[in-house]
Amino acid sequence: MALASLAASLPIAAAAARFRFGVRFRGMASASAAGAATGAPARVGVVQMTSVGDVNANYATCSRLTKEAAASGVKFLCFPEVFSFIGSKDGESVKLAEPLDGPIMQRYCSLAKESGMWLSLGGFQEKGPDDSHQYNTHVLIDDSGKVRSSYRKIHLFDVDVPGNMVYKESRFTTAGDTIVAVDSPFGRLGLTVCYDLRFPELYQILRFKHEAQVLLVPSAFTKVTGEAHWEILLRARAIETQCYVIAAAQAGKHNEKRESYGDSIIIDPWGTVIAQLPDRLSTGFAVADLDLSKVEAVRTRMPIAEHRKFDSDWKSLTHQ
User: What residue stretches are annotated with the CN hydrolase domain (predicted)?
Assistant: First the structure.
């Protein structure tokens, strides 16, 4: 199946869909989305892992899982946020940050090519606008080893987690300003990262303005917030957008200071969990076959796109 060109880049205003924070949209012209992938079900995998402060050790884990997934017939493998490095000291990741054509990402491009597999690499430490900041970037690589698209995390995690610790992602990370959706052999993909999950308007825009069929949510949720909200938020995003959701998660203790919730999961457009690892600590991957005819069936039987009375920024409602 031929892929349409991925080069188009449109501001949201041009598509009459201004995101209220001034965020732009980058992706295919929307007319191409419906035809992105309507053939046989595609086998995808969602990874769960415990990244550490060693780039080579993390790559070894990712490489092993990619090769195992390829042997299982997986054509698209999704890794969690900060898959390549989680440090124990403030500022470590900024010092390691590289451009997308740097040696770390090129190593993963070679892995995708060698495995004949698309990779979703969520939460890469991309070199930022200055020496004190990085971008938290979700990178999509195709099976030829080419970076097809990237998304810089928009919503940064500046939170005082009850009973846990204070997180200030913006101290070392610059927020992105572009919403990204892209066609692939696995459907039209909406790219997000972790804390974005708590902002449903982003997912509404991806679905209703830019026709996403599959939402990617690579994450490193804290144990406290994950136990309370992880699965219910993911299922809500699937149900309200009628999209598949693939959420790769970091799991367990990375170091003395940081622990992630785990629970990598794939959810169908009806909100049903269709793939999940057996526990929240194991390193491995779960597999599911994405059938885009199910997306269309759910949307046809419950045509919420036709019934919506306002757009995602609520501007068409009357305020009193």
Answer: 42-292
